Structure formats: C-alpha cells, structure tokens
Amino acid sequence: MENRSKEQKYLGKKGLIALIALLSAFVPLSTDIYLPALPGMADFFGAPAKLVNLTLIMFFIFFAAGMLFWGPMSDRYGRKPALLAGVTIYVISSVLCACSASIYQLIAFRILQAIGGSVASAVSTAIVKDVYRFEERESILAIVQSMVMISPALAPVLGAFMLSFTSWRGVFWALAAIGFIALMGSTAFQDTIARRSSVTIVESIGRLGVVLRNPGFLSLLILFSMTSISAMAFVASSSYVYENGFGVSEQAYSYYFALNAMGLLFGPMLYVKLSERHGRGQIINACFITIALSGVLVYLVGNISPLLFAFSILPATIAGVCSRPPGTNLMLEQQQEDAGSASSLMGCFTTIMGTIGMLIISLDWGSIIAALGIIYIAIGLTGLALWTLISKMSIIKQAPAAEAR
C-alpha cells in the first residue's frame, strides 16, 4: 500500500500525525479537563453529585455508541466527510454546554458532544490503517499513543489552572476551541480511504457484524481490550486508595497519579525500542507476564505505603500500554476493508471493558488494594493464556512476509 501521507498537500506527514494524535486524545480531553470543575458545577446548579456525575457517565455511554455509527459511515462516505460532520457537532455542542442554564441541559448537550466527538476515535485509527503499511504502522501507533497519553496527566492540571481565573463554563469554551482546531485540521485533511463502500447506510452499519464474524479480529479484540479492565479499575479507585486509604492530600495524590501517567507516556515508546531486538510475540508475552507480576506486588506490599503502591502498579501500567501498538496493528491487519468499522469496534470494546473494570472495583471489597492486585493478576494470566492459544492458531493473519520479523 502506498504511504498516502505524501498526498497531504496542506498537512504534510507531521501535520497528519499531529491531527491523528489530537483526534485520538478527544476522550481524555473531553472528560479529564473538566473533572476539577465538577464540585463547582454541583454548587452552581444546586444539584446532587450523582446528577452532576451523569455528565460524565452519559458521555462515556454515548461516546461508545457513537463510534459504532461513525466508523461504518467513514467506510461508506469517506474519512473527511465523517470528520467534518462529527467534529462540527462537537464544537456546537461544546458551546451549548458552556451556555447551559440547567444541569439537565448540560447532560443533554454532553450527550450530543459525545456523539459528535466519537467520530475522532472511530476515524483516527482507520486513517492510520489507510496510510501506513504494517511495519511502519506500529511506529506511528506508538508515537500517536505516547502523545495521547500525555492528555490524562495534563488535562486535570490544565482544568484546575483554568478554574483559577474562569468558571466551569470557561472549561467548555476551551473544549470548543480544541474542537475548532480539530475542525480546521479536518478541513485541511485530504481523504485517505482507497475505496469507499458501495452499500447502503443500513448495510454500512451492518458491516460491524461482518467484522465481528472475523475470528482473528474478534479474538484479538477481546484479548487486547482486557487490559482496560485493570487500567480503569485503578483509575476509578486511585483517589480512594491514596486519599482515604493512605491519607495523602489532594495535591500529593496528583503527584502519585502523575507518576502513573508517566508510565502511560513511556510504554508505547518502550515497545519501539524493544521491537528492534525482539519479536512482537515475545514482547506481548512479556507484557502480560509483567502485568501479573505487578499484581502480585500490589497484593503483597501495596498496602505498606503510597510510594510502594505507586511503584508496584507502575510496571503493569507500562506493560499495558506497551502492548497497545502491536495489538492495535494486528487487529487492523485482520481487516483489509471496513477499517472504519474495525476501528470503531476497537474503541467501543475498550470503553466497555474499562466500564467493567470500574464496576468491578466499585463492589464491596474488604481491601481495594488487594482487589486491584487480584484484578491485575487475573488479567495478566488470562491474557498470557489467551495470547499463547491465539498465536498458535491459524485464524490470525500476521505481518506480510516481506515485513515480518
């Protein structure tokens, strides 16, 4: 396949990568940046916290659902038309969020924002599939995912900084500005899809089922989405562990969380370095083993001190994101067509698995730290067993012969 980044007359190669990274970061930017504003929003609207939290929960639900729509639409009509439509909805809804007069309006506009913004995640990975060949694709995915991983660390800090001179409305105006930048990039973007689907809209959405019936894609989808269970279980419980369990301050908690975020940034680039000497199968095995061993550390010594907990869980964080570039690349390789549908399913499954992790850790555990350790051990061992089984089966399409390591 030709590298169609050369055809980006206005963006160029680096501009295309920057646009893909920005689109891929829509979820953390749209959620984490306004987390510090939640208490202020509850006071402003005089609404209970559980009602204000619906602005977050409903966003995730409709973001996941929206991806299942935009992916097939981009296969049918092209990446650019889908991006222009979805990002325009995102910008308009962000402005409406900033102008909301009631909590119910804000919830409704956040749903609209999620539907529009979900086009970014659905289409960005499909663009990578369109443009880059198998081997180069892994490096691009690692670069993009490293850039994206900065967002969860910086977004809450940026949101807290903005609240020092503006209200929660200003946060949504900032999201509208980010969306506008993405819209300008999408306008300059030249479509990368080689051949558009000729089926009807209903049949386009039905292509999701066709992709899911691909046993190679489905098995890899389940396998590599599983790491989101443990990752989001940690994210959902981290403030309770550090602040309630260890009694650290909110500021100290942010430092410990930033340490974990640095692992998110480091993981994808670690894969690039390791892949220079080791095969992707070996690296994936090592990642799942590391996740399990990290879980053992969390279970055994994680409750001794906040620093020990942080360093016990850090290897699992690094290993989890280290496995993403080869995992994403292998999933994309299973589908020569319907890249938009495949991309949307990958994003949707990751969100669903993450939600499962949040639900599991919210159960009445005797010790959250021990529960996290067990979850990481289970994910690591299950992932290792499944990968060992799947990699030996003939249903998985590996790298093209000319590019295989």
Description of the structure:
With 405 residues, this protein is mostly helical. It has two domains: 1-196, MFS general substrate transporter like domains (Growth Hormone, Chain: A, Up-down Bundle), CATH 1.20.1250; 210-396, Up-down Bundle (Growth Hormone, Chain: A). Helix content is 78%, strand content 0%. Helix 5 runs antiparallel to helix 17 (339-361) and helix 7 (103-131) packs across helix 17. The longest helix has 29 residues, at 103-131. It is globular, with a radius of gyration of 21 Å. 48% of the residues are buried. The model is unreliable at 1-6 and 401-405 (pLDDT under 50).
- Using the CA coordinates, give the radius of gyration: 21 Å
Low-pLDDT stretches: 1-6, 401-405
User: What distance separates the N and C termini?
Assistant: 19 Å
By CATH reckoning, the class of the largest domain would read Mainly Alpha
The tally of domains stands at 2
Mean pLDDT: 85
* Proportion of beta-strand residues: under 5%
Major sheet summary line: none
Q: What is the fourth-level CATH superfamily of the largest domain? A: MFS general substrate transporter like domains
If classified by CATH, what would the architecture of the largest domain be? Up-down Bundle
Structural class: mainly alpha
Anisotropy-based shape: globular
> What is the number of E strands?
0
